[in-house]
Input
Amino acid sequence: MRAGLAVFAPRVLLLALIAFAAGPASLRAEDPLSDLLPSWNDGKSKTAIVDFVDRVTQEGGPDFVAPAERIAVFDNDGTLWAEQPVYFQLAFALDRIAALASENPEWKQKQPFKSVLEGDIKGVAASGEHGLLEIMAATHAGLTTEKFGDIVDGWLESAEHPRLKRPYTSLAYQPMLELLSYLRARGFKTFIVSGGGVEFMRRFAERVYGIPPEQVVGSSGVVKFDIGPDGIARLTKEPKIEFVDDGPGKPVGINRYIGRRPILAFGNSDGDLQMLQYTAAGHGARFMGVVHHTDADREWAYDRASHVGKLDKALDEATAKGWTVVDMKSDWKTVFPDK
Output
């Protein structure tokens, strides 16, 4: 990871230290709203977040939630970091196809690999789910989990976003990094619940978000245990899907890997709708947040018609049920951390 990725603003770190030293209740009592979440503009979204956290952390209050139950879940792509023009894990897979092409000369005439090598993204998309699975199998399977992790690390160190000209790990959203830090300072446990590959996300989640590997829930492929030729026990990735943590799979993943219903959930697309609904259905105080991409200058503006991160049904439900819809253009002072 590049040294320039300073994911937590110094002021947020200071607030966190204050919270741990003086206790959760003192943070809000001593600091005005403007001092919390400094990359958020004062407004309805920021106020809703802070008010919710105040209510569920106020001992003796009607909405108090014990620390063990303060579970917060976040989608990754489009919620914690950018996702355009393609999901970053797909960008990784496409780069791997190019790197492996010399070992597989038949790919020059075989779809979807031919389209990948020719830079024909529309051709890749036209290959459908089957083609994408072929790409993922060719770039992910047949490797030990350690080897795959090393490859991901190398890509993250060297790859650069084609439009923004920054490392992918520097495209985490500064306001969301502050929110994660703020929640943890108030006794929340933060999880990623994403359709992305779990082993891919675990390579950077702790460094970028402060979320350890065991708190990352994602889609997974089958892995097989055996003893390698060197006599060392290993896990090898196979070209089979085990679990898809997207749409209705997200509440299933939460139940399977977390075991508690969240009291706070953040997403940005229709793939997060069921996770938001599951969170909303619990008893007591609940917070459901949706990041709405409205800033074409600093990031991208997209929702209902997007091929990536489509936000349609979830936006309608959020509006109808009074969930917090974060308008990126108006609610965030900045989008990405300083280079």
